Structure formats: C-alpha cells, structure tokens
C-alpha cells in the first residue's frame, strides 16, 4: 500500500485548514500519473510523508489538530509530535469526478497536482511543482547543476509530450472494446525516438548514468503500460526496456509502485463511472 | 552582433562553420516571435552573439541536424552544444551568463513566472489563427477567445498590483510574452487591450525598455512579411532586405 492511502475529498467536504509549518501539502489522486511525478520527487528529495491522522501533538491541552476523518487543521501548539527539523509532506486526495467546491480556490480548473506550502503559496502544473521542490528543498538535487545538462533534460521533456495523450487514448479505446492499432503504432514511434536518445547517449538513464529528474518525469506512464494493456509497445525498444528495469530497481520508484490489482480495480470502477473508483483499495 | 538583418539561409545553402570562441550563435528569423524571445534576452543581458537567419519556408537540410524539429530559435555555443525551444534557450542564457538575472532566485517566484507562462500559452496560436482569418472568415469567435485570455493576464497584474508580471521591475516572463503584444502594436490592434487597463499600462512600460525598443519591428516590414508568409511565399522571411 502506498503512503498516500487516504479517502478522497469530494463535494460538500469541509475545506482543509492551513498547512502547518514544516509541512508541504500535495493535492493529488492515487492513480494520476501527473501527480505521481510530484510524489516521486517528494520521495526522492526525502520530504517524508506524514499521514494526516498521525504524528500530531499528543499534548492533552492542545485542541487543534484533527477531525475524525483525519483532516489537518491548524495546530494550536505549533508543534508536530516527535517533530524533527526534516521537511515533510501530507497528501489530500481529491475526488476528480466530484470535486469539492473549495478545491477551485486551489486551482482555477480543479486540476491536480497542486502544492500548497505553509505560507499558503500554491504551485501547479506537475513539471513546475517538481522543479519548485527541487529548488526549494535542500539535499539531493534531481536536476543537474550544469546549465547545459539542465537544458538538455528540458528538451527531452519536449520529446516526450505526445506520450501521455497517446497512452491515455490507448487505454480508453481498449476499455471501450475497440482496437487501437493506429494509436499503438504512434506510441511505438514515440518510444523509438526515446530509444534513439538512449542509444546515442549510451547511458542507462535519460540524464546519464544516474537517475535524475527527467527519468522521474517520464516514469509514471511507463509504470502504467502493463496495467493499461499496452506493455508490448516496448517490444522493439531494448534500451527502453533496460531503462524500465533499472527504474524498477530505484528505491524511490519502488516505494511508490502501485499494486497491479488495485490499479485494475480502480480502472474497472472508473470506466463504469463509479464515483467510488478513486478510493478503491483503501481499507479505511 | 552581426547577422540580425542578414538574408536567410535556405535549401542548398552550405552549413555554417563552428561558432567562434566568445560568441554564442542564434539561428533565428527576423519576424519570428519565438526567436524574438531569445534575442530580447541576449540583448537584455548584453551577451555577445551572432545571428544566422533561416528561411522557414525553405529550410536548409543541415538545419535539421541542429534541431530535429526544424524550428527557430536554436542556440549553438562554441563547444558545439545546441539548445532549442525558445523558453529553454532563454532560461539557459540566464543561467549560463553573468549579469542581471532575469529569472528570480526565489523558488516560489520562479514557479509563479512559469505558471504565468502556462497561462499565456493559448495566446500565440490564437493570435496566429486570428491573423490567418482576417478579411476572410468571421473571426469574432477568435476575438472573444483572445479577450478571455487577455483578461486572465489582466487578473494577474491586478492581483499582484505591480507594473510587470514578475514584480516592480521587468523580468523574464515579461520578455517571454512580449513579442505577441508587439504584434498588436505593429498591426494596430491596440483596441484588444482596451478592456484590460493594466495590460495596456504594461505594454507602455515595456516599450520604454531598451532591449524592447532596440529590437522593435518596423510595422511596414512586418506587414509585408506577413502577407507573403501567409501565402507561403519563399521570399517572405527576407522581406525588406
């Protein structure tokens, strides 16, 4: 079970309180690939997950912390129980088919992911959120220091831009019982372009011999190839397959790997327009 | 700074040699708004550069080795490193060269500039489709969409209470969105910002910037270029030379 396993908030839910000091909040959805990027970066930067219902003040006099659903409210005593100086993050999952009214104050169109910090500053668009985290938090830098190498990673991202749309279209088409041969062909072509890059560079990862930001930005869609039913699209791209295998060895990627059965359960409900789809697999 | 007003290179032209030490080369086209972004940053940062104009209606074969997408702008440095996509070239120049930083150091302020950039992203294709349609079909739908997009930008300025999109002084985001507002001026479409007073004031402030004013396009040349370009004329890119 991944670490963001909380029920979604939907219409009629109470807006969450301000983000406590020392925390950054991510508005997300457990199966969204764009939000997945941001969760990978949070994990890779060591900005540890804080479950909203735990690790809050146990001081008996402290009134402000949590309601029964575990929604964060203003911490009156200003402390986190057992708080260290290490930065942490919390996740609020949003029901994308039944968005809370208050969520449109976080993003004009109600998109995810959105970051909110303790100053109330909001950052959205997944790539912008990932870069913000890399800039704002100390420790391991995911983007290279060299400005040309940084530019290269951003150019690589441009090469990737058709992949999300194509993989989604394949999924939708297959789920509607139609063939998606044309779409798969187009997707294979995109994968060939990426294969060429790896071949030209002769490195395992897209940024060099070590994993870096660009690999995390690509990963969510490759993790979904199998569960979307299009894993054969990498049949003709051996370097890409090696990259996938190497990514699966990465501790950050592993920590957030989504269980296949749970994902399939979500997809089944989602395509039946079941509003509970987004909470599939949650025990609480 | 050579080559800004040089004839463009087209199919069959010889590929240029390596970039001399101490300079950076930009592959450009005199009327391309995306390339204009890069030229503005080069100017604003005082970076020594040379310009090679590309005939976008008749691209040289060698140009696709510089940018597989075949688009301008492209930067090439003396180490043979190539950078393309206008926003990426601008950020690279800001990071690689000393002097005034156009992007803020603060991570949140930097993210804000990128969010405004996303907010702006519908304007270039809208404005282009508006220009293609003028005098042909009814373009009131496009006009309305443009109004909507400009209102979004107006809201940013209203909320920030500053003259420029990044604060009280001109910064990267202003240069990135400027070229399309320059079009409004050269094509005398200023009425499009009548309902967005802060945007209007911003345009006036931008016109006072030395980089902006030194690179301002001659309206006659631009109109001449546009007519030929929309007709897919191979000579469009060199209009006025």
TrEMBL record, chain A:
Catalytic activity, EC: 1.20.4.2, 1.8.5.1, 2.5.1.18
Gene3D superfamilies for the chain: 1.20.1050.10, Glutaredoxin
GO molecular function: glutathione dehydrogenase (ascorbate) activity; glutathione transferase activity; methylarsonate reductase activity
Reactions accelerated catalytically: L-dehydroascorbate + 2 glutathione = glutathione disulfide + L-ascorbate; methylarsonate + 2 glutathione + H(+) = methylarsonous acid + glutathione disulfide + H2O; RX + glutathione = an S-substituted glutathione + a halide anion + H(+)
GO cellular component entries: cytoplasm
Keyword ATP-binding: no
CDD domains, alphabetized: GST_C_Omega
SUPFAM superfamilies membership: GST C-terminal domain-like, Thioredoxin-like
GO terms under biological process: glutathione metabolic process; L-ascorbic acid metabolic process
Annotated ranges, domain GST N-terminal: 22-141
Keyword line: Oxidoreductase, Transferase
Domain GST C-terminal, chain residue ranges per copy: 146-271
Its biological purpose: Exhibits glutathione-dependent thiol transferase activity. Has high dehydroascorbate reductase activity and may contribute to the recycling of ascorbic acid. Participates in the biotransformation of inorganic arsenic and reduces monomethylarsonic acid (MMA).
Similarity comment text for this entry: Belongs to the GST superfamily. Omega family.
Name listed for the protein in its UniProt record: Glutathione S-transferase omega
Organism of derivation: Balaenoptera musculus
Gene name as annotated: GSTO2
Automatic annotation (TrEMBL), chain B:
Listed SUPFAM superfamilies: GST C-terminal domain-like, Thioredoxin-like
Pfam families per the UniProt record, alphabetical: GST_C, GST_N_2
Gene3D superfamilies: 1.20.1050.10, Glutaredoxin
Keywords of the record: Acetylation, Cytoplasm, Oxidoreductase, Transferase
EC number: 1.20.4.2, 1.8.5.1, 2.5.1.18
An example Gene Ontology molecular-function term: glutathione transferase activity
GO CC terms of this entry: cytosol
Annotated coiled-coil segments of the chain: none
Principal location listed in the UniProt entry: cytoplasm
GST C-terminal domain ranges (all copies): 106-230
Swiss-Prot/TrEMBL catalytic activity: L-dehydroascorbate + 2 glutathione = glutathione disulfide + L-ascorbate; RX + glutathione = an S-substituted glutathione + a halide anion + H(+); methylarsonate + 2 glutathione + H(+) = methylarsonous acid + glutathione disulfide + H2O
Subcellular location(s) of the protein: Cytoplasm, Cytosol
GO biological process terms on file: cellular response to arsenic-containing substance; glutathione metabolic process; L-ascorbic acid metabolic process; negative regulation of release of sequestered calcium ion into cytosol; positive regulation of release of sequestered calcium ion into cytosol; positive regulation of skeletal muscle contraction by regulation of release of sequestered calcium ion; regulation of cardiac muscle contraction by regulation of the release of sequestered calcium ion; xenobiotic catabolic process
Stored InterPro entries: Glutathione-S-Trfase_C-like, Glutathione-S-Trfase_C_sf, Glutathione_S-Trfase, Glutathione_S-Trfase_N, GST_C, GST_omega, GST_Omega/HSP26, Thioredoxin-like_sf
Domain GST N-terminal: 22-101
UniProt function note: Exhibits glutathione-dependent thiol transferase and dehydroascorbate reductase activities. Has S-(phenacyl)glutathione reductase activity. Also has glutathione S-transferase activity. Participates in the biotransformation of inorganic arsenic and reduces monomethylarsonic acid (MMA) and dimethylarsonic acid. Exhibits glutathione-dependent thiol transferase activity. Has high dehydroascorbate reductase activity and may contribute to the recycling of ascorbic acid. Participates in the biotransformation of inorganic arsenic and reduces monomethylarsonic acid (MMA).
Assembly behavior: Homodimer.
Family: Belongs to the GST superfamily. Omega family.
Protein name: Glutathione S-transferase omega
Protein species of origin: Balaenoptera musculus
